[in-house]
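Lay summary. Proteins are chains of building blocks that fold into shapes, and those shapes determine what they do. In this project we predict the shape from the chain. Here is one chain we studied, written as its sequence of building blocks.
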Amino acid sequence: MRVGLATAACAVLAGCSTVEGLFGASGPPLGTPGFVQGFLGGVAAEEPRAALIGRDILAAGGSAADAAAAMGFALGVTLPSRASLAGGGVCLAYDPRRDQAIAATFLPRAPTVLDPGSDRPAALPGTPRGLFALHARLGRLPFEQVIAPAEQAARFGTPMSRALARDLAVVATPLFADPNARARFARPDGTPLGEGDLLVQPELANLIGLIRTQGVGDLYQGGLARRLADASRAAGGALAFEDLRTTLPQLTTTVAVRLGSDVVHAAPVGGSVGAAVALRALAARASAEEAAAAARAAAAAVRAGADPQAVLDGATPTGGGLPAALGATTGFVAVDRDGQAVACAFTNNNLFGTGRVAPGLGLVLAAAPGIGAIPPALPSVLLISNSPLRAVRLAASASGGEAGPIALAVAASEALARRTAAEAVAAPRPGLGDRLGRVNLVHCPGYLPRDPSSCSWAADPRGHGLALGAD
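And here is the predicted shape, written in a compact code that computers can read:
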């Protein structure tokens, strides 16, 4: 009875919206970890610290888009070998309130005009504006709040993950030819930082701090843009201020196809369409090898300019093959308690991009695609939703170059066969898919937000990632 009276009083007292408003808050405020009690959703990423940051954003009441922005910026600090803030990527997002799926495409593209003095042409950075655009559409917490953990990780240091340490070990010798890269990633004795070593990046922290306080736009058309143009020139990359100003993400509807009562969503890029085509082939009882061939053909056709929706609808793919080597990628997924879901893949078009760090800014410059021996990467993401239920069933991303699409398709197929997320990502795959593919997956067979108890999340056991959630 007292609760009922308090609720009635709340309706007429100005400034009082809840019973807690009368009797005091019962927990942390919105924006503070611990705000969400019980089921908060789940995240999975190829780098553990980024996953922890994403989980904390969900626990603070953030949306999946908030977690995605936080994780994307965090990867620029914790895994700059594959996801520098000077790189780019692609994301899929599902909004259950509108039963709407969108694709955000912000891949690192080549500059319009190549400076003749560039010995290591740099790509135009897509990630900051791309994540800001996604957050502006679906975020809940302030943007400056969700990117602050990345700034703190850069300023105060974060232990080198196994994923970053292994990437660094592969390219340390040529990378350390750049004094700025050597100063950032080498120990005092000149050997590469190893797993567990503290990676402190004050210049990158200052850059993220300026983005946080002055806005993302300043990196593209303000004082920060001019600093980036000058720094890239000093690093042999030579990005033009005008090119930076016109570097914009594309937010579009997804390309989609029905699979039973569900809808499979792909981004309009080769790897994503290839994964969706392979998933359809597996659903039609094709062998894993046949599905892998279909994925390669579809990915190559879309990269060659074929219409992504037509390829997904079954048009015969034409467009040659894929390059022998494709740029390194990484990714993550995030799903919140309300059923909003985001799957993203990021790339520098090469491991550690150009191999140069922009002086004064701390950015690992991504490599310009299509120039020299640098082909565009093959980012692979999928979402599965159900329109009658206005709910999400699956969100997944994959890395591994040519191996990514088939690895993603097999994991999604296993999940749809009622496997848990951990079982799905651990399932065997054909050829390179098993050796090189790395999948992050959140799966809710009972659909979300309809049945949170059905959800599970997993990072690929072949890699060094982490999956987290709470219920």
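What the prediction tells us: The mean pLDDT is 92.
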